[in-house]
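Sequence only, no structure available. Ideas?
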Amino acid sequence: MHPVDALQLNFNPNQMFVLNIAMAFLMFSVALDVRPGDFRKVALFPRSVGVGLLAQYLVFPVLTLGIIWLFRPPVSMALGMILVSMCPSGNMTNFLVHFAKANVALSVTLNAIIILSATVVTPAGFLFWSKFIPESEALRKSFELSFSEMAWIIVRLIVLPLLLGMFLYARFPGFIARIRPWTQRLSLLIFFSILVLALAGNLDNMVNYLGFAFVIVAVHNAVALGTGYFLGGAFKLPELDRRTLAFEAGVHNTALGLLLIFQFFNGLGGMALIAAWWGIWDLVTGIGLAGWWRGRASQPVLS
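Reply:
I predicted one. Tokens follow.
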């Protein structure tokens, strides 16, 4: 066993309470951009939505196992990679797609579907794909993993805030329009606060193992971005849809991943390090890629 597999981060009940509240607020801010009619927009681009779901739920997890096989990271880090791959799209996805001048309607629709389906897909996908990690059986068996408990956490902290935000917009559209910009800015601040909170008091231990995570996360994230874009190309989707799918597959809600790690895996250090660094790195690459595509938006794109 690698030393990082035995590392556990300290996270007291008060910090866990703050993390839960912050996670719910993050998803509430996302809901302010979602309308019930967005789900019906699947009919506008069914193939793009289908390819996005294929990239998110099948191709990227399989490629994640390939990266694990290639790099042979410590088992706890490999578990973190699988968990990240099964987390839904990040709360920054719609902003990045808008900034990149890609297909915002597709992003909102696909993001809403992925978030709602995370109730089932995230716990079921993790429990399924993690079985294929070499030498992981002993570590997996050391934790009591319950599909129903993981699903209920996701319902409380993702689905219910999402539905509440949609309901409030339908009843009070003027008020929601006024608070939306500030709510979403505050949600971004909260996201980074979650990362800091997760690492506070454990920084020395985490820095000792950062070298193991840096390259793996960089490769994993690049593969995630490429999965959406190139799979869209393989299915001959329009260029702007391909760019949208790059962000949908490449930006993940690692705040949810951290919450699940502290809730069900006793703050397992290798998993937390992967999820926390992912949360930072995918924003760096996402903003960089969005800026590059935004600069090329005036040039004609191939359909």
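The chain has one domain: 3-295.
Hope that gets you unstuck.
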